[in-house]
Amino acid sequence: MSEFSYVLSRHVHGKNIKTYALAQYCGLDRSNMYKIINGKRKPTSLEMVHKMARFMHLSPAEEQELEEAYQITLTGYDNYYRRRDVMNFFSEFNLSASSLTSFKYRTDQDVDMKETTVLASSSKVKQALFHIISAEMGRQTDGHIRLLIQPEASFLINLISAESQADTRIHIEHIICLNNNSETTQSQKNYNLNCLKQILPLYGSCPHYECFYYYDDISARTGKVTLFPYMVITSRHVCLMTAELDRGYIIRSAASLRMFSDMFADYRKASTILLNQINSVAEQLSYVENLLRECGTGFCFQMTPCFTPFITLSMAEKYITIDAPARSAFIDRFHGYIKEMNTWQEQGKTACIFSYDGVRHFLETGKINEYPKDVYLSFDMHDRVSLIRRLIQSCRNGHYRMLRESIGNVEHELYLFVNQQNGYLMFSSPYTRQPVYLNIEEPGLLFTFYDFCENLDDNMFYTPEETEALLNDLI
């Protein structure tokens, strides 16, 4: 019995539905309806599923359950939940300063810590973490925090990525365990994607944050039988903790600090970097060019469409700021980049996915968030309209596709480019307002994002004719 037939038969029997009447309403004969109820056949469309729900007088929650069961039956359990979790990953992303927890560091209030301090409760652990992180953030030079802790330890993640943390000197190394147990994945939906979601604020708030990963069975790694799986090392302290962060102890001796620092260095060598940060506009342009040259079939997923292929040389000269470093050379470099983008677009190997709200946001602001705001001026209204007209032409060619509804917040957007071998995420730092480019190194995440884009339902998109009419009306 399929997931859909299980849910459907439960409603049919629970509400005493007459199978013949249900079949007639849905335009089927009785034998085919019995096959659907028994899991030997699937409904021919989502519309038929909604017909069944209306006939059985299902509540909105019951109808949603039936539709979800239908999607699971079509795509499979793992595929359905993985794609749903990616949808939520983008929909819920909102890395703005107001969305982050704010802490005020108080380095003048010391915590009574001996050579070894026992932390016998959750409050003691949090107090100690607050103290040692605060003290390290307050160092004038050589601040260094090393974390061996899973991203679901939200108190510590929020503490480090808090709004008051704008220190560009602190160096943070973070080692996490990614899950390789498929059975656990079904009970903890896409654990690895959730890890990524939790650490993204650290990339936005800490310029020198690096995350490394290794694979293991996450339930065994952080289970209750593991004594002290978590560790935080600063310049003066080592803190060992349980997975629940409810017990632990702090060590201050120099010998212990050296030993645990050496252990962390060994773990670091055995781990792989999760996301590689791209730190300058020049590096960004070279990176994307190389990506496009090597690109097979891929997807550009951003609600504000990629306007770069439509920018002319005269626009570059007009909008790149006068005080941009080596301005003439940069304009020439940028123009070459645009030509590369045009070649890439003409090949038609990559689908560019965007939304109506994203176009409207650009029309209102004139901002292209892929680039730092201090290197260009906002486009004037005439050129905004010109770029959107060029976008419409690419929609006619099928290179760009417009979603019926935005996935995520266009004002605090998470951008994605992905093919089967490479990809990157991009968002604006809530502190510096500069774009943060992160090359995705972990193959499982690449597959997860690629699979999501490749399997977006056609019903989620406007047709080229609808897109052209809507955008012409907008401008």
From TrEMBL:
Q: Which PROSITE patterns match?
A: HTH_CROC1
Under Gene Ontology molecular function, one entry of this record is: DNA binding
Kindly provide the name given to this protein in its UniProt entry.
Helix-turn-helix domain-containing protein
Q: Which residues form the HTH cro/C1-type domain?
A: 21-64
Which InterPro entries does the record associate with it?
A: Cro/C1-type_HTH, Lambda_DNA-bd_dom_sf
Write down the superkingdom of origin: Bacteria
Q: Which SUPFAM superfamilies match?
A: lambda repressor-like DNA-binding domains
Family matches, as CDD domains: HTH_XRE
In its UniProt entry, the species of origin is given as: Candidatus Mediterraneibacter faecipullorum
